[in-house]
Amino acid sequence: MNEQPILMSTRLKMPEPRKDYIVRQQLFEKLKDIDQYSVIVAKGGAGTGKTTLISSFVKEKAMTNVKWISIDEGFNNIFMFWNYFVKAVEGELGASKSKLMSLFNFNFQKGNIESLLTLLINDLNIDENIFIVLDDFYNITDSSLLQSIEFFLKHMSDNIHMILLTRQEPLLYLGALNMEGKLLVIEDDDLKLSHEHGIKFLKDTLKLKLSPKILDFMDEISEGWIGGLQLIAAAASGRNESQIKNFNIKDKLINEYVTKEIYDGLEREEKEFLVVTSILPYFNEQICSRLLSNMNFTDILGKLQDKNIMIICIDEKIGVYRYHNILKEYLNNRFKELDREKQIMFHLKAAEAFRDINDYNECISQFIIGEDYNSAMNFILNFPGNAALFSYADMIPDKFIIKNADFAYQCFFYYFANMEFEKCSKIYNNVKMNMSDDLIFSAFKYANMFVEDTFKINEVDTIQIDNIERLPLLAATKAYIFIKEAYFLYVKCKYAEALSYVDKAVDYSAKQNNLYIVFFCFSIKSQILEDMGDLNECIELYKRMQKMLSDNESIFMLNSSFYVGITGLYLKQMNLVEAKSCLENAINLIPEINFSVDRGYKYNVAEYKFIKEENDEAINIVHELMETISYKNSVYMAGLLRYMFRVIKFAGDTVEKFKLCYETMEESRRSLDSKLLYADLFFHRGEDKEALMIIDDILKYARRYGIKLKLVQASLLKISIIYNNSEKKRDVINLFREALFYSSKNSMLSPYHFERETVRKLISDYDKDIRNEMSEDQKLHYKQIMDICDINSKSILSERELDVLKELAKGLSNKEIGQQLSISLATVKTHIINIYGKLQVNNRIAAVDAAKEQNLL
């Protein structure tokens, strides 16, 4: 089943007004300036004519650009609603149509919705008016969905006009629009038919051929209620006038009235048709034949329409219909009187019928109502990239979810992506309670650590790759498991192993063509490579990610994550121009980026500002981040705090908070960044011995596992600590050479900028020793280090070397220079050798030319 789910157009078609409908001139007058209002609310009970009013107005005025969405209970979900909404307005989206539709279909996070709506609003800001009708809006009650609709209403352009048809007050704040004169409300009383219109409706629309006295009676007891007139007309079929006079629908006691006056008078076959098909949101001959194979659809439908039964035509050309809500609610209650086994049978037949016409949303809904939860779950699992389908998980009882390991696991990550951590914990605990003896439970083990902060990482046993591959689970599920295990290995600083698990996750995601997860895996991998200092490999990975984004509009939303991620790489290479550009792209691409991207964005902005020495702004951002859940424990911010602590001289509450968090944290959960910062704290408090113990452990670990970035950072910090010990000169030079060796291969510069005071002293004092046996790549990198640390050749050359250089430029011989400066010939030669080395030349002429280029002469 590789075909992508589609949204059925029947929900997006305006119902055809009945032939010979009543023109509500008084209400039409209220609606004549409809394009001057942002929101129009038509509010009235069932059968008050809201839908007919708007559909007939549209037809009478020959309105264009009207988009209609018929809403039911299934729309009360943020993903489902907006997916249908985008489908409804797709004709106005132009070139961005496919991109936006893909974005909404493949978005897994509620936090992204406002960002996506911003894009949608911008694309709908065109020269033409767009009228969007939301029929039966009262079905929308979900708080997050209502909040997103309020966001849309607040920010939409003036050419968009929302028409809400509802039985009750919409659960939206519309006060501001009302104050601005942009809200039009049509109330229940406005919708009541006048006596004249009531009679006209009975005679002209419903074609009743009864005496004026009886028509007056029927209008009187309906009290202007259009639905009442339709019920009376249906009941009047086959009755004489004396029988009609006994009708009474006061107080709208619908069930009793419909049963006695309408339903009981139908043939058995007609009753069965109505009751069984009432479970459908819409129907046609193909669907009905699956439920009732022995019935003549055309014959029965014709009879029911002749009897004025409340059937609404959605699309006459293709023969699609639905029941009026008054009748549908009544028939639904009759359906519930059937044996439960029969109910289930019909729901499952309906599910199969909707599956065959590719209405996968309704298919899943019918499976769930029919309590075939396993079929519903398996159906959803066939489309792991569609968030709207996964939203049905809330309708499936937990006891069934835990019986389907694939669904349970993917559900867990669906909730995790939306930060619904309580639901994550609930799934995990149910699975643990019921499946702990099952081999498959190993896949779930420790997953709770993603949402709980009480775990001990040293207690986590990583599942071996072979064991994961042998589990009887879907490829998409295995991808999630590999990601989980990679995360634990990453936290343990076992980078190489973590990379092997990420690569496996990529393989399994690619098999399902799940680009969202592949990109997520690449993001994790890039972070690991960056932490290891393998920046060249990281660059190549970002090139692949960029190509993915350019080739696949469906993951356009991930562009912001891409720019935030690659900014960290540029900062480590001190490419501040590109870093700034990427930060601007990230924030401009999507104005309201989601929490996780926003967090990473702020982190990088803070580091950028520290590097630029805009310290006050950077510190403010650090404090903002420390208020978030992710950084509540300041140990997780060590990479940023190292900048801040240098600025505030390692004093203050933030420093003490970090120290407490670090010292109370389990050893195995302490990152290498946090250990470096803790060592730096000891150093700046004069406790060099303790600092060196930590640094030596970091160096040992970094050398063993090839973690280049930490090796360079730790080496430079150690140099700072031991620099003033004259006995450690050789150690200082060797540590710097080692750092240079690893950093030169990946253009790693930020550690040198961070320790720039020490680097300046070191190069000034030991430049000649450092340059000894330097490769060409290292020479180039060394020059880059000097540039970012603001070290020029003049500061490298000693005062006496500058004197020798000036005499050299005059063309004097070594002997003449010695005589001029009153120094020995041997000393002159030593100075000249140093000059050659520091200027990276090998003869007098080249030395003079280089000196002139660098303004030394």
User: Major beta sheet, specifics?
Assistant: 5 strands, parallel
Strand order of the largest sheet: 2-3-4-1-5
CATH superfamily of the domain at 23-191: P-loop containing nucleotide triphosphate hydrolases
> How far is it from the N-terminal to the C-terminal residue, by CA?
77 Å
Number of strands: 7
In helices, the fraction of residues equals 55-70%
Mean pLDDT across every amino acid position: 87
The CATH topology of the domain at 23-191 is Rossmann fold
Query: How would the global form be characterised?
Result: elongated
Instruction: Report the portion of residues in β strands.
Output: under 5%
Query: In CATH's first tier, which class of the domain at 23-191 applies?
Result: Alpha Beta
The structural class is mainly alpha
Number of helices: 48
CATH architecture of the domain at 23-191: 3-Layer(aba) Sandwich
- Low-pLDDT runs of 5+ residues are 1-7, 591-595
Q: What Rg do the Cα atoms give?
A: 37 Å
GO molecular function, one term: DNA binding
Domain HTH luxR-type: 790-855
Protein name: HTH-type transcriptional regulator MalT
Pfam family, one: GerE
